[in-house]
Amino acid sequence: MASLWKSTAVTLEMIKWEHSIFALPFAMTAAVLAAGTWPPAKVLGWIIVCMVAARSAAMAFNRLVDARLDAANPRTSMRAIPAGSLTSGFVLGFVLVASALFFLGAAMLNRLTLVLAPVALAVVLAYSYMKRVTRWSHLVLGLALGIAPAAAWIAVRGSLDVRIVVLTLAVLLWVGGFDVLYACQDFEHDRKVGLNSVPQAFGIEGAFWIARIMHLGMLGMLCWLVVLFGLGKVAIAGIVIVALLLLYEHMIISPKDLRRMNAAFFTLNGVISVVFFFFIAADVLLRR
Asked: How far apart are the first and last CA of the chain?
């Protein structure tokens, strides 16, 4: 039993489960927009279960699929599987348990969430193979997180409204942009071994410009969201703050200096998602 708990703890550390915060606030935002107020606690609870379970399954699956690639990359060679801290069999078991928990959560919400659950899981798992076939794998990762708002809307309403797809596109561009930046760290390695990525294809300078364009697109989508839902000044203030945080993110790293990548990737992006949720939710609740 002690060994099981230790392996589970190592797995949770490996997948950085706390980084579920990246997409969770966007899903919560969609839930508030769908309900027009604070959704029932039971619904929010199962949305959180589905979000954390799906991300955990996807991250563990990624580490399993990429184990040999991680072993060959100096930056990732000490991850749990290549380092021998976890066996592939245990990680596969973790993926299956997390996937089962995801399906349970979907079943507890409504019929449509359960019907679409296999599609959602297929998308989040498929990302692990994308870097082998396309330089635009970053956008597939963006889609994997971007479907969270649409899924949360369905969880609350039992149907899909095309307006919430705009938030899906915003998250897709946001995640795709910061993943392009993060991939710059592996530029030399990816070119050496033939892995696809935007930095590998366009160089680090080109990758930075592509990430900037993606993040400008994200801000455009958020502005469109405000118009579609008739949101007010509080929501607009939130988007302004998100824009400033994105600007700061792009200021603390550059093509010639990637030393603060972790601060840009992990800390700032977590703050961005929370700030966006807080201001949009506040706008909706204050206007009731």
From this structure: 50
pLDDT in tens, 66-119: 888 777 777 777 777 777 777 888 889 889 999 999 999 999 999 999 999 999
Closest CA to 92 of 123, 116, 117, 128: 128
- What would the DSSP string read from start to end of 84-121? TSS-HHHHHHHHHHHHHHHHHHHHHH-HHHHHHHHHHH
Contacts of 258 (CB under 8 A, 6+ apart): 184, 185
Query: What are 236's two structure tokens?
Result: 């607009």
Tokens 């790293």 belong to which residue? 253
Name the phi and psi angles at 269, rounded to 5: -70, -35
Residue 151's domain spans which residues? Answer: 2-286
Nearest to 183 by CA among 193, 198, 171, 169: 198
Task: For residue 32, give the nearest of 285, 251, 286, 288 by alpha carbon.
Answer: 285
Q: Encode pLDDT of 225-283 as tens digits.
A: 999 999 999 999 999 999 999 999 888 888 888 777 776 666 788 889 899 999 999 99
Is-contact 160 201, C-beta < 8 A? no
Q: How far apart are CA 169 and CA 166, in angstroms?
A: 5
Closest CA to 239 of 227, 251, 250: 227
- DSSP tag of 162: G
Q: Which two tokens stand for residue 262?
A: 């972790």
Please tell me the distance from the alpha carbon of residue 283 to that of residue 220, in angstroms, as a whole number: 19
Tally of domains in the chain: 1
- List the CATH number of the domain containing 245: 1.10.357.140
